[in-house]
Design a protein that fits this description.
The structure holds two protein chains of two kinds. Chain A is mainly alpha-helical. Chain A is built from twelve helices and no strands. By secondary structure, chain B is α/β, with parallel strands linked by helices. Helix content of chain B is 30%, strand content 21%. In chain B, the strands form two sheets. An eight-stranded mixed β-sheet of chain B has the order 6-7-8-3-9-10-12-11, sandwiched between helices. Chain B starts with a strand and ends in an 18-residue tail after the last strand. The chains are: A mainly alpha, B alpha/beta. The interface between A and B is medium-sized, with 21 and 31 residues. Chain B: It is a peripheral membrane protein. Chain B: Keywords: ATP-binding, Cell membrane, Membrane, Nucleotide-binding, Transport. Chain B: It comes from Saccharothrix xinjiangensis.
């Protein structure tokens, strides 16, 4: 009985608190109360901070082959941790720890780059389909259907393989293309739902121009799921970019410190030093997890069903 | 010539794979400046579709609108989309049923009021904001300056409906259509909103089409009443004769099913039997016949015509005689 009363009281408090807030502020407030959101946000923020400061805090030069490490290299041996080299050597005698730190920058760059490109293209396609409807919608959606019918990794591999020589740009483009249909579908669906909403009908009844209806009434109300998807896509983009590098479709430059590439190169030494595969894999997983947690809690916070 | 002349308006919904369905089946009525005309009926009788057809807001596909809607001599049904867009909000305003969902949740109230001023009166944003505050003040929203910066979910239901009325009247339309404007509000707010509408109509000389299922609203507001059943007008009269002496059994039934404060204790309400069926057959019958206590054999064979007599139009073979008390419920 007591708890019921308390719950009711809390509801009232929440209601009082929510008065005088916009939708975004409301969502943020709800996220600040969710442990999942906080864990996700902390991981993402740490990762972002790390990727900025990595070159400055790396204890060793990530691109230099240190003689004391190179000397220890054998056909069946890679030197392990030693003073000054926290995680030991990689297969070419470079400091593995420093390379792991710098790799954060690469992953973030590729992940954010691919997601942004995919987001912009997807929103253009989905927005046009949702705004015009009719045959424009039909054609654009058949196009995205075709793209969706190919498994995303396979599509990314095919696109990356088209380039004569792999590079970071081809990886970004390949991953970006696979995310386009997802964003397009999502925005189009949300816009179509808005098109038949009462407030769009009300705006139409006021003679508001179509352009204004699309940009002021339909689009802003459709962005919620797209923002959530963008956060989730960051996670998959990082994984996919790593997969492409792992498969040798990324930048072949041996200098580049990239988690997927490091994972791929460690394969040959898995029976000698399995940690070398383990560390970049864990790094990828943690970052992907961070973005996923953040995205999921964002989805929950923006869900109107949770609004009280 | 009346300001708005609706003649033989028909809206037929055509869905692939199913029979065409006449939602509005030859509705005609006039509205004069400053006059309030009610369209009354149960859910599904075609009142909302009539209003959407007048505003040109029915989806462009899947339906056929025929007849004519002459507004100040121009047939609105013949206008292009662009011409119609210029008139909506400027000459014709509309207030919808649900004030929360009719406002855009992500932009402040102020922008939603200025939008229509910028669109039709070419006001710069700043001047429009001043005008918007005046409009909100006029519809009885206290502290309008602050309200302009607030979002719809921060306003109460009554306040939202006031804001919507302010938006609809921003460009001083000569015709306002209110589609069940009080249905989503509680009774006290309902009374306030109706009083507000009445006052605005009186002050501005705006013609008002009031769409409602609530005869109380009609009694308080309307000069002329059209009772709709199955997409057709079954009775049309001025408010007083209609309420004092309903002649159509449907109107009679509607009035009999309203609870009254002055009824003797223990008297039961008299509902109308049955409910509106999905496809109401007016061909070779009266659509109301299956529910009608006065039904004669002829009602199931001949479609009644709308006949005008003594300031009243009536579509019935066997009207209720003047002075008949509320029909008793017939046990099923």
């Amino acid at each position: 009985m007591m708890t019921l009363l308390n719950r009711k009281k809390r509801r009232v408090d929440e209601l009082a608190e929510s008065a005088g807030t916009s939708l975004a502020a409301d969502a943020l407030r709800r996220m600040a109360r969710s442990p999942v959101a906080i864990i996700g946000a902390v991981i993402v923020l740490l990762f972002a901070a790390l990727s900025v400061v990595a070159p400055f805090i790396a204890p060793k030069d990530p691109y230099r082959r240190y003689p004391e490490l190179v000397d220890g290299l054998r056909a069946d041996f890679i030197p392990g941790p030693m003073p000054g080299f926290l995680l030991g050597s990689d297969e070419l005698g470079r400091d593995f720890f420093s390379r792991l730190l710098v790799g954060a920058q690469q992953s973030l760059f590729v992940g954010v780059g691919a997601t942004l490109i995919g987001l912009v293209l997807g929103m253009l396609i989905g927005g046009a389909a949702g705004a015009f409807g009719g045959w424009v919608d039909s054609w654009l959606m058949r196009f995205t259907d075709i793209m969706l019918s190919i498994p995303s990794l396979l599509l990314a591999i095919s696109i990356a393989a088209l380039a004569s020589r792999g590079s970071q740009t081809t990886v970004i483009i390949a991953v970006a293309v696979t995310t386009v249909p997802i964003f397009a579908r999502l925005l189009r669906g949300a816009m179509l739902a808005q098109r038949h909403s009462d407030h769009v009908l009300a705006a139409t009844a006021l003679g508001v121009k179509r352009r204004t209806i699309v940009f002021r009434h339909m689009l802003p109300n459709s962005l919620g799921p797209v923002i959530v998807q963008a956060t989730l896509t960051l996670a998959t983009a990082i994984i996919e970019a790593a997969s492409l590098s792992f498969l040798g479709l990324g930048d072949p430059d041996p200098d580049r410190a990239e988690w997927g590439l490091m994972l791929g190169n460690s394969q040959r030494w898995i029976d000698v030093r399995p940690e070398l595969a383990f560390y970049p894999a864990i790094a990828i997983i943690i970052v992907a997890l961070g973005f996923t947690l953040l995205g999921e809690s964002l989805r929950e916070a923006l869900d109107p069903k949770n609004r009280r | 010539m009346a300001m708005l002349e609706v003649r033989d308006l028909r809206v037929v919904f055509q869905r692939r794979g199913s029979e065409p369905f006449s939602a509005v089946d030859g509705v005609s009525f006039d509205v004069d400046p400053g006059q309030t005309v009610g369209l009354v009926g149960e859910s599904g009788c075609g009142k909302s579709v009539t209003s959407l057809a007048i505003m040109g807001l029915l989806p462009s596909r899947g339906n056929k609108v025929t007849g004519s809607v002459k507004f100040e001599g121009t047939d609105l049904l013949k206008l292009s989309n662009r011409e119609m867009r210029d008139r909506r909000g400027r000459d014709l305003g509309m207030v919808f049923q649900d004030p929360l969902s009719s406002l855009n949740p992500v932009i402040p109230i102020g922008l939603q009021v200025t939008e229509v001023l910028e669109r039709h009166r070419n006001m710069p944003r700043k001047q429009a904001m001043v005008e918007a505050a005046e409009l909100l003040d006029k519809v009885g929203i206290p502290d309008p300056q602050r309200r302009l910066t607030e979002y719809p979910h921060q306003l109460s239901g009554g306040m939202r409906q006031r804001a919507l009325i302010a938006i609809a009247l921003a460009c001083r339309p000569r015709l306002l259509i209110a589609d069940e404007p009080t249905t989503a509000l509680d009774v006290t707010i309902q009374a306030q909103i109706l009083a507000l509408l009445k006052e605005l109509v009186r002050d501005t000389g705006t013609a008002l089409i009031m769409i409602t299922h609530d005869l109380g609203v009609v009694a308080g507001l309307c000069d002329e009443v059209n009772v709709l059943y199955g997409g057709r007008v079954v009775e049309e009269a001025e408010r007083h004769p209609l309420f004092a002496e309903p002649r159509h059994p449907y109107t009679h039934g509607l009035l009999a099913s309203i609870p009254r404060l002055d009824a003797p204790r223990g008297e039961k309400l008299t509902p109308i039997k049955g409910s509106v069926s999905d496809n109401i057959p007016w061909d070779h019958a009266c659509a109301f016949a299956p529910r009608c206590p006065n039904a004669l054999p002829v009602c199931r064979e001949v479609t009644p015509a709308l006949e005008r007599a003594d300031l009243r139009a009536l579509r019935c073979h066997n009207p209720v005689l003047p002075g008949t008390p509320a029909a008793q419920e017939v046990p099923a």
